[in-house]
Write a structure and sequence with these properties.
The chain is an alpha/beta fold. It is built from twelve helices and ten strands.
Length: 319
């Protein structure tokens, strides 16, 4: 009898699903720490849609804009790692913000579980047609010949466009003067009008004027030339070891069970390789690549160190 009871109990235990197998049993929240309509929001919704299909449970996006994405990210860092709260992370919140501001309230690497890399658009340098410059070496030669600090536009202080331009200037040995804008569109228009020497913008915001031929694109920060714009060279092929995108990703509170991390990463890697998803990303030149959770965590750490070094070199600090 004792043997029978033991076998019955063992069978009952084996029949019980683990917490990972039960997950998710209710809707899962994905916090996008920026306003609706931007790239973070778009990628978050694509991910939520794909995960909803994969796990047959609703994944929904909640926008918590403000503070450069820091407050929304901090809120997730402090949540329980139960698998029901994620955040759309990225270069702004998990590399640049903590690199220039010691008061974010979180460690960008260790205070999160980094789940999956989405990707993002590259930075592009544009110049006004009136400048008479058509290549990156010509822009550098122009600066040195005229002994001039080149004024440039970016979407704002501490943005990818800002730090990429400063990184490039350091490598090229030229002086630059930053003119930050609240958003990229006004900066692009002032570059087009010839009020500034160049602009350092995400591809998404500059692509309209590039396609219209009203500005001259000198270089993109992608590893290879963009398939839809093969005539625009990369920084790397012009002699500057500069590869960067305004990337986004998915992270969660620290301590998220590995089984959940693995399964979500696996589904997102598959999702972002689907032709229909790739086509949606292509319209904004959002470049993506598969990464394991381990590879992605290492990437976040490297990006943080990289941009912290640039911020320190130019004395950039924010409160």
């Amino acid at each position: 009898m004792r043997l029978v009871i033991t076998l019955v109990l063992a069978a009952s235990v084996l029949a019980l699903p683990s917490k990972a197998e039960e997950w998710p049993t209710r809707p899962v929240r994905v916090i996008a720490p920026f306003a609706a309509g931007g790239t973070a929001d778009t990628l978050g919704r694509i991910a939520a849609e794909q995960l909803s299909d994969a796990f047959r449970q609703q994944f929904f996006v909640e926008n918590r804009g403000g503070g450069g994405g820091v407050p929304g990210s901090l809120a997730v860092a402090r949540m329980d790692p139960d698998g029901y709260n994620f955040v759309v992370s990225g270069i702004a919140t998990h590399a640049i913000a903590p690199a220039v501001n010691s008061n974010t309230g979180y460690d960008p690497v260790n205070d999160f579980t980094h789940v999956a890399y989405f990707g993002g658009p590259p930075i592009v340098f544009i110049v006004p047609k009136s400048l008479g410059v058509n290549t990156l070496p010509e822009l550098v030669a122009y600066a040195k010949k005229n002994n001039e600090k080149l004024t440039y536009a970016s979407p704002g202080t501490g943005t990818s466009g800002h730090l990429v331009a400063e990184y490039f200037a350091g490598k090229a040995g030229i002086g630059v003067e930053h003119v930050p804008y609240r958003g990229a569109a006004p900066g692009v228009m002032d570059v087009m009008a010839g009020h500034l020497r160049f602009g350092s913008m995400t591809w998404t915001t500059a692509s309209g004027q590039i396609s219209a031929g009203t500005v001259v694109p000198l270089a993109v920060s992608s590893a290879q030339r963009l398939k839809d714009f093969p005539n625009i060279p990369t920084f790397r092929e012009q002699g500057y070891d500069l590869v960067s995108t305004t990337w986004f990703s998915l992270s969660a509170p620290p301590g998220l069970p590995k089984s959940i991390v693995t399964s979500v990463n696996r589904e997102l890697v598959k999702a972002f390789a689907k032709p229909e998803v790739m086509e949606r990303l292509r319209t904004e030149q959002i470049l993506t690549e598969p990464m394991t959770p381990e590879e992605f965590k290492k990437f976040v750490g490297e990006e943080y160190v990289r941009w912290k070094s640039v911020a320190q070199q130019i004395g950039l600090k924010q409160n």
